[in-house]
Amino acid sequence: MRRRRPGNRALRTDRLLAELAGTGVSATVVCPGRVATEWSGGQNQNGSDVMSARDVATATALAVERGDTVCVPGLAEAEALERLLETESALVSEGNRSVLADRYQPGF
């Protein structure tokens, strides 16, 4: 099963927020990991890394109330998400160039 990447979604949400600025509409991306639901035949019902749907809903409601852009309900260290967002932002801004980076130049 392919793992979803929160940061990638976070950047898209930031772009959406920029477009929504001044409209009174907000957006929050929720990246809960595995959730105990009936989806996929209930495959995610058991396991030590599975969160209850109620807990995901609680975290999501609080994140929306706070105006958080990204909600990762199981992430204990909020600073880890901030570091990821900063790194991805740098990758997007610094990686968007019209010339090849030195390391991709022939003979480098």
Automatic annotation (TrEMBL):
Give the Gene3D superfamilies listed for this entry.
Answer: NAD(P)-binding Rossmann-like Domain
Name this polypeptide is given: Uncharacterized protein
Organism, per UniProt? Streptomyces sp. 900116325
